[in-house]
Amino acid sequence: MEMTPALRATRFSQLKPGELFIFPHDSSSVVALAAADPSRDGDLCAIPLGPALPPELIARIANLAGHTGVVSYGPEFVVQLPSRPDGWPVQVPPPDKACFVLSEQGLYLRANFYPEPPGFQACFVDMKDGKILTSSEMIRPEFLTPRNICGFAAEWALLTREAEARVILSCPAQRA
Fold it and tell me: Domain span at residue 102?
């Protein structure tokens, strides 16, 4: 039997950094990215991206350690960046708006590491490996900003990696 997209049922604790997954939250399902949390020796954390979340929880680092079952896309997804100039705003998007950052170093997801709303502490997740960009200091890592940021993608979509890609999640939300 073949299944598309190639999903797997697993436990949150079994995910690897950089995997995209779906988990239940309240009465709906949420898409999130697994990331390595440097403040806890690289333990796994989640970055909820939507769609069914209040704005203050979007892209805020979450601890799902007690959460069991998730549906994982694994690393098999595509980040679609805007092709129009207005998808790349001149001003940095507000903290409650999930965005991707393109720099000379690569592509990053900007997330909020501050534990409680409404605070904001930007951190950047490297989309190559799912690791939060930090200093190499082991005692208390410091969040780093990618060098030479060229733009903030305020519009984006996460797509399946199939011959005919399908939208997993988009910002702003695409209407069906």
Answer: 8-171
